[in-house]
Each structure stands twice: as structure tokens, then as C-alpha cells.
Design brief:
The complex is a heterodimer of chains A (351) and B (234).
Chain A lengths: L3 H29 L6 H18 L4 H28 E2 L1 H18 L4 H24 L5 E2 L5 H22 L16 E2 L5 E2 L1 H23 L1 H11 L1 H6 L4 H27 L7 H14 L5 H21 L5 H15 L14
Helix pairs in contact in A: 1-7, 1-10, 1-11, 1-12, 2-3, 2-6, 2-10, 2-11, 3-4, 3-6, 3-10, 4-5, 7-8, 7-10, 8-10, 11-12, 11-13, 12-13
Chain B lengths: L1 E10 L2 E11 L4 E6 L5 H9 L6 E6 L2 E2 L5 H6 L2 E4 L11 H8 L8 H11 L1 H5 L10 H13 L5 E5 L7 H14 L4 E6 L2 H7 L2 E6 L2 E7 H6 L1 H8 L4
Parallel strand pairs in B: 3-8, 3-9, 6-7, 7-8
Antiparallel strand pairs in B: 1-2, 1-4, 4-5, 9-10
The chains are: A mainly alpha (351), B alpha/beta (234).
């Protein structure tokens, strides 16, 4: 059994990475009132984007991390356009986008001879691009409607299946690993017994830095104000001239980039990448945003450290197969005692 | 400046507007008056893009904006101050004002913010407070201030006096008469007497149609209008 200081250090860096994931998760919930269950798949793809950059393209890790974040952010925007936006407002461009997406899937997954496969894939991607631009520029949508809460949850589950299947198609179902010599392994001693490895230090520092950047972005910029305005009232935001779909796209980008960062960092720290790796963090993240108060970014950050600690401590002192049981015990406890979350304030603070 | 022709609009199966036509010339104040449910707010919401018209045209300057998204309409300078103020309660007073200038690209936003604070000193004192903590009258000031921050070409005011104490109502109409100097106004009011005092021209809506129209001074003296909407003078 390991010493407590060591466990606290482990809880800290794992909690920090979980915080990145959960802040993006709760951000989208705050703005759209939807739970994007495909956030875990975005997390997984973020890790694999970095994996492609490092192993196939031979790029340095320092360059691959931001590229993977941008990739995951763009993937997240695409996810919104395919799975969520048509439920809010359908445009003819959106239909073209979907048509292109189906062609792209047929090209990527189908067993075609070499030039045909490339041709179909590129055609699909080109049609998608045209559809995306048309969708974005449309000022007279075909249909606008209020979404029932169930519809986006189902379509995000569907999106998860597609993204996981694509990853299995590309990388296989087995575990992929970064090259072993990517990072120095000699640990830093915090105390005589407690150590933190360089990669864990990177996870902690980068996570804290990104949390700070997010906080400034949300609280100090016109973009952040617009995001919070939409979270408060979409209707009023529209009357102020805020292009709601554009700001939603920005929100999804931020959310996806954070999930991607968490994916790369945890993928590096455990050096274990697999297409189903998003499932576990998805459930932990869901607990975090409920405990933190749905839609509260600061609450999610705090709750992530709490959940990270609980997981690490239950593995160290009780039984590793029970770690999720303890996380869910916390979830149920919070739902029973304080359904608005431990750290969350209710959205409507009225005089 | 704004020309609405034969506007039809509905909530699901219920027709709310049955062929509304009106005009707002540049520099004027035009009032839409009428009873509850006559279609006044529906008209504004259709013009501002919150509702899609079933048919009809809405010409603003040289464009037909019928069916446009609300944010595109607002970006043209056709700005609605919605019923019930609709301030962003979770944001601070200053953040509300800065978001009023969301569509602007120029560098004079800070200058306009100072001007807004000069005009509404109560907002300056409370600039860092969450807007939900303001009183109803203060929220209406914030809604005006926020709309002015966008430098609107045409301001559409939806029931600005609704739910406010009589003294505050006086204040609100005083502000509207000041706004007249700066921008064109389309005013929707249940308080028809006050609206006709301030407007140049007015339309009376009834059951989703224009029942009567004319210069505000004429309508004020029209016995039918007096009977139906203004009540007897005391």
C-alpha cells in the first residue's frame, strides 16, 4: 500500500486532466442545455490525433498537442453541425452536409480499390465543406424548432458509435502506444517517498494553464460574454445581434479542444490509447458536472479534483474495481442532498 | 424606412396577424396601439425575426427582411427592446451594455459607454452588479441603454411601461421623447393615451388587422378611439 502523499499527488494530476474534460462538457450544457455524450469520443479522437502526428507524421510532441486540440475542436464543431444543429434549425446547407458525410463514410469504411476509395472520400469531404459553408451562411432557415431534451442525447449516442467505429476502423480495437522514449521517465521527488513523473507534471501544469485561459476567455472577452448571454437567454441574445450558431460553434470548439487536450494528456500519462477509452472519462465527467453544478465551470473544476481524489484513493486503499462505485456513491449522495451540486449556484439568482 | 405589407403570422394553427400593413418613415415615432391580443407584440416579433411570417413583406431600407434570422435583422440596425426588459440577469450591468454593442466594429464603444453612464447615472453606480438585482425601472433604463449602445437606426420598443410604477412610467416616456431626437422609433404600447401623446402617427390593431390609422393628434380626438382605448377624460 502506497503512502498518502503519493496518492494525493496522483489524485491532483488526474483530477486536473479530468477538470479539462468536464469544463468543456459543462460549458456546452450551460449554453445549450444538452448533454453532449459524444464528448468522450472527442476525448479519444484528441488522443489519436496526437498519436497520428507523433507516429505517422513524426512531429514533435510540443507541436502535436496543440494540433490535436485544434483537431478535436473542429471535430466537435462538426459534431454539432451533424448531430445537434439540424435539431435546432435545419437549413438546406445542413442537408448537403449530411449527404456529404454519408458519402465520406462510404468512402472511408467501404472496401474499395485504391483510386476509387480516395475519390469517394475526397468527394464526400468536398460536399461536406460546401454544405458547411451554405449552412453557416444561411439566413433563412427551412425550419426552426424547440428541441425536446431526449433528441440530442440520442443523437450524441449515435455520434459516439460512429466516432468509435471509425477509430476502430483506422487504428484497430487493440491498445496503441506512443513511442516509449518520447518523454524522460526519471521522476521528481516531492518528499522522500512521493514522486511525480515529468509527464504527470506536464499534465498538471498544462491543465492548470488551460483552466486559467478558459476562465479569462469566459469572463473577460466579448466572446465569453456572448457565450454566457446565450446560456442566460438565447432569444435576448438574438435580439442583441449575437449570431447564436456562430457562438455555439465557438463553444463546441472550446469544449472539444479541452476534451482533446485531456485525451492527449491522459493518453500520454498512461500510455494507453484505445477507441473505447472515452467511456470511462465520460461517466466520471458526468459525475463531475453534476457534483459541480450543471453549467458551472468553476464548480466543474473543483468537483473534478474531488472525483479524481476519490478514484485514486479508492484504488489505493480499497479495491480498484470499486473506484467507479465510489464515484457513483458520491453522485447519488449529491443528488439526494443537494441536487443543484456542491459547488454550483442555481442559475437563477433572483433578487 | 420600414415598410410592412400584408403580414400574416401565426402561432402553430392560431393565426395572430391577418394582413398587417404599416410604415415607419425615417425620423418619426410610430405607435401601434390596441387591446391585449390584438397582435402588437406579434408584429414586432415578426419584424425582428423572432417569429417567421407566413407571408407578406417587410422592407427595411432597401432589403426584404421577411423570415431573416433575428441576429441578422439586429445587425442591420433594426433593434428591438423586448417586452419585460429581458435583461441578461446573470451578467453584470456593464456586461449587458457591452453586449449591446456586439454588432459594432468601430472603436467608439468605450466613448458610448461613458455617454450611457452620463445619461443613466443609476447604471454607473451599479455597473459591477448582477443585472438581476436592479429594480424594474432600473432594468428598463438598462434595456434602453443597452439598445442605444448598438447605435440603432430604428428602435422597436415593446410595452416599455408594462409593469412599472406610475412615477417610473413618467420617467420612461420622458426618456422616449428624448430618444426621438436620435433615432426612429416604432412604439408598441397598451397605454394608448401616453403612446399617442408621443407619437407622430399611429395604427390601431384589432384582431390581427389594422382597424384604423392616422396622425396621433387626430386619433387622440377620435371619439371611437377615446371610447375603446383611452377611457373617458376625467
Amino acid at each position: 500500500m502506497l503512502e498518502l502523499p503519493q496518492q494525493l499527488i496522483n489524485g491532483l494530476w488526474q483530477g486536473a486532466a479530468l477538470a479539462l474534460f468536464a469544463m468543456g462538457y459543462t460549458l456546452v450544457f450551460g449554453v445549450l442545455d444538452i448533454i453532449n455524450l459524444a464528448q468522450g469520443a472527442t476525448f479519444m479522437w484528441g488522443a489519436f490525433f496526437a498519436f497520428i502526428c507523433v507516429t505517422k507524421l513524426g512531429w514533435s510532441l510540443w507541436f502535436s498537442i496543440p494540433v490535436a486540440m485544434v483537431g478535436a475542436g473542429l471535430l466537435s464543431i462538426l459534431l454539432d453541425r451533424l448531430a445537434f444543429k439540424p435539431l435546432r434549425s435545419l437549413t438546406s446547407g445542413g442537408l448537403v452536409l449530411w449527404g456529404g458525410f454519408i458519402v465520406l463514410l462510404v468512402g472511408m469504411v467501404g472496401k474499395w480499390a485504391f483510386p476509387v476509395k480516395t475519390g469517394i472520400t475526397i468527394t464526400g469531404a468536398a460536399v461536406m465543406l460546401v454544405g458547411f459553408v451554405l449552412d453557416y451562411r444561411s439566413i433563412r432557415p427551412l425550419r426552426i424548432r424547440e428541441v425536446p431534451h431526449l433528441a440530442p442525447i440520442i443523437s450524441s449516442i449515435g455520434a459516439t458509435f460512429i466516432l468509435v467505429s471509425l477509430a476502430i476502423n483506422e487504428f484497430g480495437a487493440q491498445v496503441s502506444r506512443f513511442p516509449a522514449n518520447l518523454f524522460p521517465v526519471k521522476p521528481y521527488h516531492i518528499t522522500a517517498d512521493a514522486v511525480i513523473s515529468p509527464i504527470q507534471t506536464l499534465v498538471l501544469i498544462l491543465s492548470l494553464a488551460l483552466m486559467l485561459v478558459l476562465s479569462l476567455l469566459i469572463n473577460r472577452t466579448q466572446m465569453g460574454r456572448a457565450i454566457r448571454a446565450i446560456a442566460w437567454s438565447e432569444r435576448t441574445s438574438r435580439l442583441l445581434g449575437i449570431n447564436v450558431d456562430y457562438v455555439i460553434a465557438q463553444t463546441f470548439f472550446i469544449s472539444g479542444a479541452l476534451a482533446g487536450a485531456a485525451g492527449v494528456l491522459l493518453g500520454l500519462a498512461f500510455n494507453r490509447l484505445e477507441p473505447t477509452m472515452g467511456g470511462e472519462v465520460e461517466l466520471a465527467g458526468l459525475t463531475v458536472i453534476i457534483v459541480g453544478g450543471m453549467g458551472s465551470i468553476g464548480g466543474a473544476a473543483m468537483a473534478a479534483f474531488l472525483v479524481g481524489m476519490i478514484r485514486v484513493l479508492s484504488v489505493a486503499y480499497i479495491d480498484s474495481s470499486f473506484r467507479d462505485a465510489f464515484v457513483f456513491a458520491l453522485l447519488i449522495l449529491v443528488l439526494l442532498i443537494r441536487p443543484s451540486g456542491i459547488f454550483g449556484r442555481s442559475k437563477a439568482v433572483r433578487a | 424606412m420600414l415598410k410592412v405589407r400584408d403580414l400574416y403570422s401565426s402561432y402553430g394553427a392560431i393565426a395572430a396577424l391577418k394582413g398587417v400593413s404599416f410604415e415607419v418613415p425615417h425620423g418619426s415615432v410610430v405607435a401601434l396601439v390596441g387591446a391585449n391580443g390584438a397582435g402588437k407584440s406579434t408584429t414586432l416579433n415578426t419584424v425582428s425575426g423572432l417569429l417567421r411570417p407566413d407571408s407578406g413583406s417587410i422592407r427595411f431600407e432597401d432589403r426584404d427582411i421577411a423570415g431573416w434570422r433575428a441576429d441578422k435583422v439586429a445587425a442591420l440596425g433594426l433593434v428591438q427592446v423586448p417586452e419585460g426588459r429581458q435583461i441578461l440577469g446573470g451578467l453584470t450591468v456593464e456586461e449587458n451594455l457591452l453586449l449591446g454593442a456586439y454588432t459594432r466594429k468601430d472603436s467608439e464603444v468605450a466613448k458610448d459607454l461613458d455617454e450611457t453612464y452620463l445619461r443613466f447615472p443609476v447604471l454607473k453606480n451599479r455597473r459591477r452588479q448582477i443585472a438581476d438585482l436592479l429594480s424594474g425601472g432600473e432594468q428598463q433604463m438598462l434595456a434602453f441603454g443597452r439598445a442605444l449602445m448598438s447605435r440603432p437606426k430604428l428602435l422597436m420598443l415593446d410595452e416599455p411601461s408594462l409593469g412599472l410604477a406610475p412615477l417610473i412610467v413618467q420617467e420612461v416616456f420622458k426618456i422616449i421623447s428624448e430618444l426621438k431626437e436620435r433615432t426612429t422609433i416604432l412604439l408598441v404600447e397598451q397605454n394608448a393615451r401616453k403612446a399617442l401623446e408621443i407619437a407622430d402617427y399611429a395604427y390601431v390593431l384589432e384582431g390581427g388587422r389594422v382597424a384604423q390609422e392616422g396622425p396621433a393628434t387626430e386619433l387622440q380626438n377620435d371619439s371611437r378611439i377615446v371610447e375603446a382605448y383611452l377611457g373617458r377624460k376625467h
